[in-house]
Amino acid sequence: MKITLIGAGNLATNLAFALVEAGHELRQIYSRTDASARELAEKTGVEAFTSQIPAINKDSDVYIVSITDKALNEIAPQLVEGRELALWLHTAGSMPMDVFGCRRRGVLYPMQTFSKQKRVSFRAIPIFIETAEAEDLKLVKALAQSLSDSVYELSSQDRPYLHLAAVFCCNFANHCSTLAARLLEKHGIPFNVMLPLIDETTKKLHTLPPLEAQTGPASRGDENVMNKHLQILESEGEQTLSKIYRLMSQSIQQSASAPETK
Amino acid sequence: MKITLIGAGNLATNLAFALVEAGHELRQIYSRTDASARELAEKTGVEAFTSQIPAINKDSDVYIVSITDKALNEIAPQLVEGRELALWLHTAGSMPMDVFGCRRRGVLYPMQTFSKQKRVSFRAIPIFIETAEAEDLKLVKALAQSLSDSVYELSSQDRPYLHLAAVFCCNFANHCSTLAARLLEKHGIPFNVMLPLIDETTKKLHTLPPLEAQTGPASRGDENVMNKHLQILESEGEQTLSKIYRLMSQSIQQSASAPETK
User: Fold this and answer.
1) Shortest CA distance from A201: residue in chain B
2) Listed residue (A212, A204, A190) closest to B126, CA to CA
3) Are strands A127-131 and A151-153 parallel, antiparallel or unpaired?
4) CB B202 to CB A197 under 8 A?
5) CB-CB under 8 Å, B215 with A158
6) A123 at the B interface (CB within 8 A)?
7) Touching B: A residues 214-253, CB under 8 Å
8) Phi, psi of A118 (to 5 degrees)
9) Which residues of A133-166 are buried (b: 16+ CB within 10 A; e: fewer)?
């Protein structure tokens, strides 16, 4: 499959490596700046790169667009122009496939947290796919399966819920660690001592639903501890942490008293 | 070492197994109810159990108290009475060791999320210890090292910060998954699809500081996506989730713009 990749960010970088490793012909990489397009092309051994939309090649089978939602909205029409017969895919969790004005459009959304500094193996990453045309679904499924062992079909209507859930599970959970690291740093305790706890918190979710895995002062209604923690945060001038502590504790107690209906 | 365990909750249960496995003589288990004391004694092969404080044996070397902070405050004097010469330890992250009015007092705080339903290996759990008497420190260190490979000394003054950080890293992070599971359930998407993402979120923390590992719409300033997510939460009547989404996103953006001072 001849593929052109539009984007050179965290996701695009990891995807480029995965595509090359899966044996696809990655013909060209486009990025807003020449420097980032060149950097990714060199790292992945791709020969052509550009930062000019008119210079994007016209003969690929598939164009995969992996850029911010804002940029996708802005440049999708220019990208498609003159390349209307190809299949256009984006990788965004919260954008409809109709952002491409052409007939052959779809989505290939690998749900993972990507950083340029850390390469991840695509094989275990769930990929959620969708196409406008039934005949393209086979193609996208084959492409997704060449990268990952977990491929699911999911509509543009349902995908935003998945993406929103991912923000909670990943982005917000990670931020909890950032806040913890800040507290520890102030008191000279290395963040690394938290890793066994964080590892086990995650491991539990493989055997218990998160509501049952919940522990801590809020879940056992330990007002003494909660008040002490709030006093600490306020005496340290940590207003935002104090607000987060209050809100999360309330929400934990609400969830415990009104468990999900099955 | 002859040990009596006071408590039969999540932490006490896991600790009882670890003590027995490490070859200590666990002489008796006390719990508020006979049923829970019996249950844990039977599971761990301990012969004596009681729910009456006066019936707690008087000849153990060490008494380990693993109950809620509230209960610890309330019953510590009765527990110690008539057993003043023994060494008294509690396992709480946010209580000072002085809750025991006797001379030989200390703390053995295993920092982990414990559930009765899921046994964990103690060897990788960091244990934070403290004693009032210098000569007891050796004893507690030996006891802690018989359970875990990671034993640290930490004062009653610093321990609350560690415990508070653990609430963020573990309890609040887990609650983010509970909220995600609720959203997914409403739309018929199984929570299991989140596991590779959650695993990777945790794995990244072994190689990147949490601030650098941060990804997602808030960290890249993607207002389009954030507004869409807030619309979804509000149209679903999820007021608490909407508040959490706003507050966490603001906090992510604050952290990114004012990184920790080294």
Assistant:
1) B170
2) A190
3) parallel
4) no
5) no
6) no
7) 214-220, 222-225, 228-229, 232-233, 240-241, 243-245, 247-248, 250-252
8) -130, 110
9) eeebeebbbebbebbbebbbebebebbbbbbbbb
Distance of residue A65 Cα from the nearest chain B Cα, in angstroms? 17
Q: Which two tokens stand for residue A64?
A: 């995969």
Other beta carbons less than 10 A from residue B84's beta carbon: 12
How far, in Å, CA of B219 to CA of B257, rounded?
Answer: 10
In this prediction, residue B117 carries a pLDDT of: 77
DSSP string, B43-110: HHT--EEES-GGGS-S--SEEEE-S-HHHHHHHHHHHHTT-TTSEEEE--TTS-GGGS-SSSEEEEEE
Distance from A191 to chain B by nearest Cα, in Å? Answer: 8
Tell me which H or E stretch contains B3: strand B2-6
3-class secondary structure for chain A? Answer: CEEEEECCCHHHHHHHHHHHHCCCEEEEEECCCHHHHHHHHHHHCCCEEECCHHHCCCCCCEEEECCCHHHHHHHHHHHHCCCCCCEEEECCCCCCHHHCCCCCEEEEEECCCCECCECCCHHHCCEEEEECCHHHHHHHHHHHHHHCCCEEECCCCCHHHHHHHHHHHHHHHHHHHHHHHHHHHHCCCCHHHHHHHHHHHHHHCCCCCHHHHCCCCCCCCCHHHHHHHHHHHHHCCCHHHHHHHHHHHHHHHHHHHCCCCC
d(CA B90, CA B144): 13
DSSP letter string, B114-157: -BTTB---GGGSEEEEEESSHHHHHHHHHHHHHH-SEEEE--TT
Global confidence as pTM: 0.85
Show the CA angle centred on residue B197, arms to residues B192 and B203, nearest 5°. 125
ipTM over 0.90: no
The two structure tokens encoding residue A163: 């993406």
pLDDT tens by residue, chain B, 262 residues = 899 999 999 999 999 999 999 999 999 999 999 999 999 999 999 999 999 999 999 999 999 999 988 899 999 999 999 999 999 999 999 899 999 999 999 999 999 988 777 788 899 899 999 999 999 999 999 999 999 999 999 999 999 999 999 999 999 999 999 999 999 999 989 999 999 999 999 999 999 999 999 999 999 898 989 999 999 999 999 999 999 999 999 999 999 876 443 3
Tokens 């008497």 found at: B133
Question: Can you list the pairs that A83-88 forms with residues at least 24 positions away whose Cβ atoms lie under 8 Å?
Answer: A83/A56, A83/A58, A86/A60, A86/A61, A86/A62, A87/A61, A87/A62, A87/A63, A87/A131, A87/A136, A87/A139, A87/A140, A88/A62, A88/A63
Report which residue type is found at B162. Answer: L
